Amino acid sequence: MTFRAPVSEYEFLLNHVVGYDSIPATDRFAEATTDTVSAILTEAGKLCDEVMAPLQRNGDLHPAHLENGVLRTSPGFAEGYQAIMDGGWVGISAAEEFGGMGLPQTLAVAVYEMMAGACLSLQLAPLLSQGQIEALEHHASDAIKELYLPKLISGEWSGTMNLTEPQAGSDVGALSSKAESNGDGTYAISGQKIFISWGDNDFCGNVCHLVLARLPDGVPGTKGISLFLVPKYLPNADGNPGKANDLKVVSLEHKMGLHGSPTCVMQFDGATGWLVGPEHGGMAAMFTMMNNARLGVGGQGVGGGEGAYQHALAYALERKQGKTPSGTIADHADVRRMLMEMKADLFASRAILMACARAIDMHTATGGSDWSARAAFLTPIAKAFGTDTGMRVAETGVQVYGGMGFIEESGAAQFYRDVRVTAIYEGTNGIQSMDLVARKMMDGGDMAFALIDEIEEQAERARASHPNMAEAVWQACESLREATEWLVSQQNMQDRFAGSVPYLRAFARVLGGHYHLAAAMADQGGAREKLARFYITRMLPEHAALLAHAQAGAAGTFALSLDELAG
Ligand SMILES: Cc1cc2nc3c(=O)[nH]c(=O)nc-3n(C[C@H](O)[C@H](O)[C@H](O)COP(=O)(O)OP(=O)(O)OC[C@H]3O[C@@H](n4cnc5c(N)ncnc54)[C@H](O)[C@@H]3O)c2cc1C
Known about the structure:
Distance between the termini: 48 Å
Largest sheet: 7 strands, mixed
Bound molecules: flavin-adenine dinucleotide
Oligomer: single chain
Order of helices and strands: HHHEEHHHHEEEEEEEEEHHHHHHHHHHHH
């Protein structure tokens, strides 16, 4: 079955749902008009459909592997990466002065989501480079920028992020990798990192690692961590790769999915590195990369779900079983329910992704702090809901296939196995939810209430054309307001944390209702209005159960002792 990048879906979303027109209305992005966006999405769509999608099975069937210590990537991945490079897609939103296209993040996130739908494993390589480019643009010295950025932006060199160690996963502050000054402006980095995506490859001239490590005077915890750029090959005076650095890939993880993406155990033995950002200021610098990556991983979830949906739909339209008008399973009510739920949630999660990316661009263009607060609030929702949607859609996709879904050759299981990790890496979805109800509500809930007000205002406007849908969204929003008031009034953080995952999901459900309502108003009598009605009448009501859970406090969660849990 062939993959078709959802170009027209993006055009509709940007033009009618998430207010993209505010972006080219700024001086900074004046050239990124809707016509330009359409042309770029169309071009990216061709890359996805014709080059990347045909590689998706290769990654699963012929995983990346080590051959006498040399990393070999899946067949066709080198050529696929070259096509990504040739199109300039690595530097789509990077600074023009270093060779990037300088386009809005909104467009970059859309393109990368489509690429994820085509081939998630390969897409992860340039996605990581993109994050590194942004971190270096913001925090690196001029010398580092001049040497590394052009090569990273062109794709000639690739970038990775090295946070995780065996004892330091979600708790990054527990890391033990060390850095010592060499006295010449460079540092010697030592330690082991695990789970490093694309820690090496056989198609880039150099692999540049951003590594978190602690200097001798670094205090314990996150405040004592510094960030270093540690290349696989040390650049010569002419900037080309020279002597090999003192680092290596020790082994590759055997994973549940995403086999085309090598997940490496990295050993650094006094490797030469350069400080990025101030000493002990590594977490702030890394957060630039992590926020970029969080939105990007949200896009991976949506993209993975899109691929799964398209495959499941194609199968449902062919599989004959039982008596239906078309003769296929697509006309059974329960199969139709599954397909509708998949499509409706993909729309909702994609809209949230775009709304978050738009807020980032508006902050870049205007410097407005309300835009950065909005982006910060929406990022954990976009990451967690996007990846939860990807998992749920891919899992439903297996169900649509019936028994063939459980058989590897159908390809349905690969979508689920591949997308599953997106809810885990880049901060688990549990950690995202805690971030939402704690750090992102340190303003007393101001940003949450501002969004709630906006949703209600649109619902009021929609009453004339869509009274029932508007009322349902408005009521859901009032329940969300009450739950938010309850949440911000809780002094015991465990009471917030115990309900943080259902709260995040409920917020996303209501946002989904908001964007579906906008789609219904823009497409009266059309398919998007019908899909909106399905979502608002059948999926939005889930918010009530989620909010009841969100406000139940921690006592019940801890009701069983650890012994009783085991009993
Ligand atoms: C395929 C793959 C690729 C990866 N790529 C990279 C990469 O490129 N670079 C990199 O640095 N890392 C990478 N990672 C690591 C990834 O980011 C971590 O696995 C993730 O952050 C979770 O850490 P952990 O595995 O140690 O789980 P743990 O931190 O042990 O968490 C286990 C469970 O406990 C929960 N938990 C932990 N702490 C808390 C808390 N304070 N409150 C509530 N719940 C908590 C978690 O949500 C989770 O459910 C990758 C992982 C995988 C599997």
